Amino acid sequence: MITVIANLKGGTGKSTVTFNLAIWLQSMGRRVTAIDLDPQQTLADAAALRIEEGVAPALLVEAGAFPDVDFPGDAEEIIIDVGTADLESFKQAIMIADRILVPVTPSQADIWSTQRFVEFLSRNTHGNPPESITFINRADTSRTIHATDEAAAALDALPGLRLIPQRLSNRSVFRDSFSEGLAVFELEPRSIATREFTELAEALYGPGNRSLLARVQKQKISTLVDPAQRLALAAPAEKLAVHGRVSSERLTAAIVAPAAEADPSREQPLKKGKKKGKKRDKTAAKQHSGSKDRPVKAGKKGKKKKKGRKER
Ligand SMILES: Nc1ncnc2c1ncn2[C@@H]1O[C@H](COP(=O)(O)OP(=O)(O)O)[C@@H](O)[C@H]1O
Ligand SMILES: [Mg+2]
Questions:
Q1: 3-state class of 45 per DSSP?
Q2: What sign does the dihedral 198-199-201-206 (CA atoms) show?
Q3: pLDDT (tens digit, 9 = 90+) per residue, 227-282?
Q4: Which pTM does this prediction carry?
């Protein structure tokens, strides 16, 4: 199944959710390929960082643009992250999607933007959009704030989208785990964030095998402290495949309606990833944009930080 995580608005958690879902699927024993069609390549960066950090299993990410990005034929699940910076690839992804997953953060601006996205979906699929599912991401954790419930009610009232009740709350572990190349359930297996994420993943992909997940979590912890395995995994960047091969017929057959409706603005907060007492910046900057090269981990000796690069 091809699931596209999409929204016209930046900063709603598309890359974060794609990354976590892909690793969750992998932990459930599913053959998954993640595709990063956003030129910002946040997802590819996180996957490269995961390799650099020696976390197993590595996540295979195909990064690029239509029609050149490689879609492996043997994947059970394909999960695609998009961004408005490459609107053509965004539209092509919508055309081949079995379903669209729309994370929405609880604000009026997000509701408006989501409404426009529903119209965009319809226009770019000739009035026949795939199943479109929405959920609230970064929900308020305080019960006294009603913005989240109000946003949910507004989303529920939007035709063309199915709101699912599972929510991800606004929790720093999403940012912290991402900047470690980890999924939330790997960094904090017993947290509320993990419970919420698991509920979302199960709502989307069916119940997970919890004992398998527990084993994967344990295995990951031992991998992190195993220097030999760490070294082996830290090796070449080929695992982060960025192929130039033309993809399947479905992709080339996709018809793209001309439009430039998207709001390309992003709301990527500029924050440094910090860890207890230790100054760490996990931004994985590409040495050469669009190249196969493994991202450089900023702040590391002997490695060069690219100026002006976004930070997670
Ligand atoms: N549930 C969440 N709780 C806290 N922070 C989150 C959550 N989901 C995403 N974020 C943070 O929001 C920011 C934007 O997320 P990102 O996945 O890059 O969005 P997008 O891909 O839609 O632009 C990142 O800093 C990310 O760590
Ligand atoms: Mg993104």
A1: helix
A2: positive
A3: 444 333 333 333 333 332 223 333 333 333 333 333 334 333 333 333 333 333 33
A4: 0.74
CA 32 to chain centre: 13
Tell me how far apart the alpha carbons of residues 132 and 115 are, in angstroms, rounded to a whole number: 12
**Who lines ligand 1 at CB under 6 A?**
10-16, 42, 137-138, 168, 170-171, 174-175, 178, 266, 268-269, 312
3-state SS assignment for residue 309: coil
Pairing of strands 296-297, 284-285: antiparallel
Burial class (CB in 10 A: 0-12, 13-18, 19+), 269: exposed
Instruction: In whole angstroms, give the CA distance from residue 110 to residue 113.
Output: 5
Residues 6+ apart with CB under 8 A from 156: 163
Largest CA distance in the chain: 54
Q: Which amino acid residue places its CA nearest to atom 3 of ligand 1?
A: 170
Q: What domains can be seen in the chain, in order of their start residue?
A: 2-225 (3.40.50.300), 269-311 (no CATH)
Task: Tell whether the torsion through CA atoms of 224, 229, 231 and 237 is positive or negative.
Answer: negative
The residue nearest atom 26 of ligand 1, judged by CA position, is 175
